[in-house]
């Protein structure tokens, strides 16, 4: 199959970027989207041009590093699918594909399709952990957790931190990401001890990173490759209000 690509090219965060057109012919429709970009880069290198930079790692839909906007949709047209798991058979022969980096003030472009998502790391560092005493690991069954609670915690913990929720949100909000990280720990006994400090610190850091405010459009859930529920945001708001109440007492 043949494809016409319009790709955002930007030398660095200080430089102005622009869309550059490329044509690829005789592609295998079973190739993944990233394999298609690899093919383009091989062609550019042979021609003496600069290859297109983009983030990737596992290429198995696990790590979330491959995020990019494809025809204006985070990770592309398939629901609950990361870019690396998207294949060319999802497009039509001869189609024009617009490829851009995630757009958000908190995600500055480093080069081409590669963005700086270290703001997520700083949110996690501010409270996305459970403090434990060093020593021998406790028995796995020492603390009883119901199956329903474990499933709910796991659903929230499934967030891979790709940033699609931020890129999709018209406000550039990180509420879905932050709330998922807060929820999966507050549901489990090990995370309840630090629940108040955790939510206050993580929300404060989220605001410090210049993410926008959530206005409940739910677009984040629609385009999240893991289908993380916006109910996490409601729980985060509850936990935040609870923490403020007990801090004032």
TrEMBL record:
Signal sequence region = none
**Superkingdom field:** Bacteria
Family to which this protein belongs: Belongs to the succinate dehydrogenase/fumarate reductase iron-sulfur protein family.
What protein name applies here? Succinate dehydrogenase/fumarate reductase iron-sulfur subunit
Q: Which organism is it from?
A: Chryseobacterium endalhagicum
Cofactor requirement: [2Fe-2S] cluster; [3Fe-4S] cluster
NCBIfam families membership: PRK07570.1
What region holds the 4Fe-4S ferredoxin-type domain? 150-179
Return the InterPro entries for the record: 2Fe-2S_ferredoxin-like_sf, 2Fe2S_fd_BS, 4Fe4S_Fe-S-bd, Beta-grasp_dom_sf, Helical_ferredxn, SDH/FRD_Iron-Sulfur, Succ_DH/fum_Rdtase_N
Q: Which residues form a coiled coil?
A: none
């Amino acid at each position: 199959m043949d494809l016409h690509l319009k790709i955002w090219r930007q030398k660095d965060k200080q430089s102005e970027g622009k869309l550059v057109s490329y044509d690829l012919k005789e592609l295998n429709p079973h190739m993944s989207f990233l394999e298609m970009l690899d093919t383009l880069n091989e062609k550019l290198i042979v021609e003496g041009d600069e290859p297109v930079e983009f983030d990737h790692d596992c290429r198995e839909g696990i790590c979330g590093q491959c995020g990019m906007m494809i025809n204006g949709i985070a990770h592309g047209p398939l629901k609950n699918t990361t870019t690396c798991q998207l294949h060319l058979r999802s497009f039509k022969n001869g189609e024009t594909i617009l490829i851009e980096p995630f757009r958000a003030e908190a995600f500055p472009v480093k080069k081409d399709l590669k963005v700086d998502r270290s703001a997520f790391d700083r949110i996690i560092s501010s409270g996305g952990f459970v403090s434990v005493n060093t020593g021998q690991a406790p028995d796995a069954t020492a603390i009883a957790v119901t199956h329903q609670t474990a499933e709910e915690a796991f659903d929230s913990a499934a967030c891979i931190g790709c940033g699609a929720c931020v890129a999709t949100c018209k406000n550039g909000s990180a509420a879905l990401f932050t709330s998922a990280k807060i929820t999966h720990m507050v549901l489990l006994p090990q995370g309840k001890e630090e629940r108040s400090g955790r939510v206050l610190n993580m929300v404060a850091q989220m605001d410090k990173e210049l993410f926008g405010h959530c206005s409940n459009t739910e677009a984040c859930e629609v385009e999240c490759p893991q289908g993380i529920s916006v109910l996490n945001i409601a729980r985060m708001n509850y936990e935040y209000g609870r923490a403020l109440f007990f801090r004032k007492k």
